[in-house]
Amino acid sequence: MDSYLENMISHWNSLKKLEGHYETERLKAEDAIQQHLQHNNLWKDKGTMSFENLKIRINYSRKWDQKYLAEVKTKHHLTATQFPFVTEYKELKTQSDYLEVKEPEIWQKISPALLIVPTKPYFFTPKKGE
Q1: Would you state the pLDDT for residue 130?
Q2: What's the number of domains the chain is made of?
Q3: Mind listing the pLDDT tens digit for each residue in 72-118?
Q4: Can you give the residue range of the structural domain that contains 106?
Q5: CA-CA distance, 44 to 76, in Å (whole number)?
Q6: Within a domain: residue 123?
Q7: Which of 56, 103, 106, 112 is most buried by a 10 A CB count?
Q8: Is residue 36 situated within a structural domain?
Q9: Of 29, 18, 25, nearest to 53 (Cα)?
């Protein structure tokens, strides 16, 4: 390994340690701010709160029990207008890999729908033995 790369890796490791420390401290500060606002009945359930040098965006996600919904739709014979949900196709990677290798004629039919999007590289410090 050349010295430049060795120095950059060493620098990255130093920054990663600092990042972990500062992230922990930042999370503690965020928690303290939230607790203070809640204690003073200033916390919103949803929306944005703005302060001089800080904005807090609060939102939530809704998750539905997929199996329960499927049973309700079937049991009660709900129409599309009575059932505000759509089916989303999610890949079963093991089965998909099998089709790609073992059944190329089927794979050829479905593969045009596949979009591969590269993810951001993940840099990390390996644990002992990795």
Answers
A1: 60
A2: 2
A3: 999 999 998 999 998 888 999 999 999 999 999 999 999 999 999 98
A4: 61-114
A5: 37
A6: no
A7: 56
A8: yes
A9: 29
Q: Are residues 72 and 94 in the same domain?
A: yes
Cβ–Cβ under 8 Å, residues 130 and 18: no
* Residue 50 backbone dihedrals phi, psi, to 5 degrees: -115, 135
Residue range 34-45: average pLDDT? 94
What is the average pLDDT score of the chain? 91
- Which is it for the CA torsion 44, 46, 51, 56, positive or negative? positive
Q: Is residue 129 part of a domain?
A: no
Please give the single-letter amino acid code of residue 106. I
Q: Which helix (H) or strand (E) holds 47?
A: strand 47-51
The verdict on residue 127 lying in a domain is no
Q: Same domain, yes or no, for 33 and 71?
A: no
Q: Are 107 and 100 in contact (CB under 8 A)?
A: yes
Instruction: Provide the pLDDT confidence category of residue 127 given band limits of 50, 70 and 90.
Output: confident
Is the separation of the CB atoms in 44 and 58 below 8 Å?
yes
